[in-house]
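User: Could you check the structure of this?
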Amino acid sequence: MGAPDPEGFVRRCSVLLLTMVLACAPQGDRAPAAPTLTLADSSEFIDRLGREPMVVQHPAGTIFVAGYGDTVPHLWRSQDNGRTWASVNVGVRDDGAVGNSDVELAVGPDSTLYFLNMSFDRQRLEGTRIDLATSRDGGSSWQWRQLSDTRLDDRPWIDVSPGNAAHAIWNDGAGVSHVRSTDGGRTWTEMSRIHPMGGSSHLAVGPKGEVAVRVVPISVSGNSFNAGEDWLFVSTDGGETWVKHNAPGTRVWRAMRDTTVKPPTWSEAPQPRWVEPIAWDSTGALFSLWGHENRVWLARSRDQGATWSTWEVAHDSAVTYFPYLIARGDGQLAASWITGTGNATVASVAYIETAGEGAPRVARAPTFQPEAFQAGMPPDTATSRSAAGEYLGMSFLADGSLGVAVPIQHAAAKRAGFAFRRYTVRR
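Assistant: Sure, the predicted structure tokens are below.
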């Protein structure tokens, strides 16, 4: 039997005591567990094509999905958390329900629903009018008005502040136009133009009524390319005045369409690049999301766009494009994007936490292939996969889950509509 080892005994007891203390420590003293994002359920609605879908949830619980596909905008609703869907009658052409492009949705704190769309002339490749419908009874009835009938380069966006101020923007070929309503969309005031140049843009309204607008050099239609016009504008007085900032990060812009020749020709740019989304969380932090080559980047500003922290949040095997971003709470984000082209096209959905000063924690769900194919000649010959739009719309739902709308564009199978994928977020 060996000699007593009192020092060894003390060391062993110390280790045991430390282990017990760590095991009993409050959860807040530990590193938080990594979040997860899991597909909970998925539904389909096969009726009319829902390209570039937008998603909102009404305070009463109804989920709305808007999209376009033929000569009129479309709207659908679900009253069972996305399991089943029904078409919503938003009116007829005489009311203003006209257009085959770019549908936008928003809901105000007074429960007003906003349904905004742009009509598009596919021969001239330019927008012709912007119409807005509002509903104050959960989508049962709608009141239409025309916001613009000028030449349009870019889709409209709308968002509503917690104080019930609604802001809408679009590009009319001479820069970024801006209108504002403070009475639930009944009347609108034309504000000063945000910027006299630029193409596509995106709009986000913050928790204290801050308004941010992302302006990029190229229009979605390819009708304009203003090299160097790559900006972020922020207003803290409801759109009366604007501060211009450089956009965070690095990206390469190339004209998608040569308008100096007749007829105009499309170029083979290395990466589809149009709308770059921005979003505010409830603390007043501003976020920007973009793709560059085969990576997805996220930036956060705590000083209204003056300075930024930037992180890589995804590294894919092929080019990434068509990003979309939403935010809630303290740095809780959801993002979607497309990777690859043709039959290698896949869609990604991710949940991102950015609270604190550390690197974001990213929970990415398994990728999937949208049931969307290029329009062939004739259409039933198309075999190459497509994104069927410029983004996948998303919304955080009241039960804490994440709802994502995905176009279904499959002429060969005679299937046109959308899929609604609901993800469970665990933190």
